[in-house]
Write a structure and sequence with these properties.
Zinc Finger, Delta Prime, domain 3; 6 strands; 3 domains; single chain; alpha/beta; 6-stranded parallel β-sheet
Length: 399
């Protein structure tokens, strides 16, 4: 089935879901409240009512979830399967519900709405499917609402949760789902996917997959956006150029600006398209003023977009810290005489200079500082302060 063609590096997981999707609904084990457990290729691939897909960021959790959803919702004939897959891609299939968030957390109201939809019988397909992206973004009381739905699932409703790890969910939820763990795909696998799916030049595809450390989404962005590649390179060169505390403070401000530029580039076009689409659906022509009775809907959309902008900025700062971690990991590799293991090969000359400006212990301290900065920012510490404290540890004075 074509729904599996745009996945890469997860052959074992695909085999599990493919076999489960081919089971007829009568073999499903709905209602098994204690059916939790991790699935391997050696174990049963029978259908169950709730799945959890875990794996590191960029491993393709959501892509696999929606491929599985498309397989479950496909009627069986090639033409019908293609139509169902297109509806799933567009998130318009009548038997598909998607629970996600563009904010920092998934709202209680969104979970309640998804739970209510999960009670409906399938309208056109074998199953009703609910995909929960970023299931780790639910606070405990919100997770408890989802738990009740998993404890007493309607027949022919399938939940597919995605999270970085099982530890990110409540133990009670973990016990009600069947877990499939993904691995980090290889650089070659991701590069091949970019060439096949996006038509990217093989050289750019390999470069982007390597710099993204096999993160599929980030690799695609780097491969298809030269400005994103330029911002990433500026980030690393800025860090390598820190020679004093004042330079560290200035670098923190510059990195925040780069993260802001990247976030705006991601959200600006999407915001405009969403607004235009809403205005058309409301019957408001381009250039026409919005009638007073419709302004509340526009305001609600703008509020959602502001929340998305906040999350996008936080995600952008985190991406910068991940890139910096790869940079100092490379410095460590050079210090250990393992130049062939470097990720940022294009900066090899600068990495060699940086490797002579400090001892390996100092490099480890900088990598630890990056990890601490990520934790602080997740804990709502002001990003500027967290970055400044981290970058002070990155001061290098060439000998």
């Amino acid at each position: 089935m074509a729904v599996w063609d745009n996945l890469t590096g997860q052959a074992d997981a695909i085999a599990i879901f493919r076999a489960a999707a081919e089971r007829v609904p009568s073999s499903a084990t709905h209602g098994a409240a204690d059916a939790g457990g991790t699935v391997t290729t050696a174990e049963s691939t029978s259908m169950t009512h709730a799945w959890l897909i875990t794996g590191p960021p960029g491993s393709g959790r959501s892509n696999l979830a929606f491929a599985f959803a498309a397989a479950l919702l496909s009627p069986g004939t090639p033409a019908e399967d293609l139509a169902a897959a297109r509806q799933v891609d567009a998130r318009t299939h009548p038997d598909l519900s998607v629970l996600t968030t563009e904010g920092v957390i998934i709202k209680m109201e969104s979970v309640k709405e998804a739970v209510a939809r999960s009670q409906y019988s399938p309208s056109v397909g074998r199953y009703r499917v609910v995909v929960v992206e970023d299931a780790d973004r639910m606070v405990e009381r919100t997770s408890n609402v989802l738990l009740k739905a998993l404890e007493e699932p309607p027949e022919r409703t399938v939940w597919i949760l995605c999270a970085p790890s099982e530890a990110d969910l409540l133990p009670t939820i973990r016990s009600r789902v069947r877990t499939v763990r993904l691995r980090v795909p290889s650089v070659a696998d991701v590069a091949d996917l970019l060439v096949r799916r996006n038509g990217v030049d093989p050289v750019i595809a390999e470069l982007s997959a390597r710099l993204a450390q096999s993160h599929i989404g980030m690799a695609r962005r780097l491969a298809t956006n030269a400005d994103a590649r330029a911002r990433r390179e500026e980030t690393l060169r800025t860090a390598l150029g820190i020679r004093s505390v004042s330079a560290a403070v200035n670098a923190a401000a510059r990195l925040l600006a780069i993260a802001g530029d990247d976030a705006k580039a991601i959200t600006l076009e999407l915001d405009a398209a969403e607004r235009d689409g809403m205005l058309r659906s409301l019957g408001v022509e381009a250039g026409q003023s919005v009638p007073p009775g419709l302004r509340s809907q526009i305001k609600a959309l703008e509020d959602d977009q502001k929340r998305r902008a906040v999350r996008s900025l936080r995600d952008g700062i985190d991406r910068i810290l991940v890139d910096l971690a790869s940079l100092y990991r490379d410095v460590m590799m050079v210090q250990l005489g393992r130049d062939q293991a470097v990720i940022n090969l294009e900066l090899l000359a600068e990495l060699r200079t940086a490797s002579t400006a400090s001892a390996p212990a100092a490099t480890v301290a900088t990598m630890d500082a990056i990890a601490v900065a990520r934790q602080r920012i997740q804990g709502n510490v002001a990003p500027a302060l967290a970055l400044e404290a981290m970058l002070v540890s990155a001061i290098r004075r060439p000998k």
